[in-house]
Amino acid sequence: MIQAAGDIECVAGGAKSGETGYEVALRLVSFVHTPKGYPVNLRRATVNATATYAVVGMTCGHCVNAVSAEITKLPGVTEVAVDLDTGAVKVSSEHPLDESAVEAAIAEAGYAMAT
Q1: What is the C-alpha separation between 73 and 31, in angstroms, rounded?
Q2: In which residue ranges of the chain is pLDDT below 70?
Q3: What is the distance in angstroms between the CA of the first residue and the CA of the last residue of the chain?
Q4: CB atoms within 10 A of CB 40
């Protein structure tokens, strides 16, 4: 039995093409209960996700600002931190982001994700 939103790790079957596990869980289960028995509406719950991407070609503060600005435009992004020395771009968001959308935002800024 699911007790809390954090207990949803995977859902077998029922996934539509391109749908994340979180989206499947939201579609299949709309309410769960916390360990204290309080109901949680999963459709309104906020999930915090963090991912780090390697970006090549950044050499200055303008590069950092351009990449940050484009990624920040993605729906759900709450924070972008860029390490110019390593090219690491850490993105925090309300939900897991589609990697191709992040890659497109980086390309729009004039840079590329490392392969």
Answers
A1: 30
A2: 1-47
A3: 41
A4: 14
Instruction: Report all structural domains of the chain as residue ranges with CATH numbers, in order of start.
Output: 5-41 (no CATH), 49-113 (3.30.70.100)
Q: Quick one: which of 49, 60, 62, 56 has its CA closest to 22?
A: 49
Determine the Cα angle at 7 with ends 5 and 11, to 5°. Answer: 95
- Distance (Å, whole) CA 11 – CA 28: 9
Q: Is 56 helix (H, G, I), strand (E, B) or coil?
A: strand
Which structure tokens are listed for 82?
Answer: 């860029």
Token pair, residue 18, equals 């391109």
What are the residues facing 49 on neighbouring strands? 93
Q: What is the pLDDT of residue 69?
A: 97
Tell me which residue has tokens 């309104």. 44
**What are the C-alpha distances in Å from 73 to residues 32, 67, 70?**
31, 10, 5
User: So what's the pLDDT on residue 115?
Assistant: 81
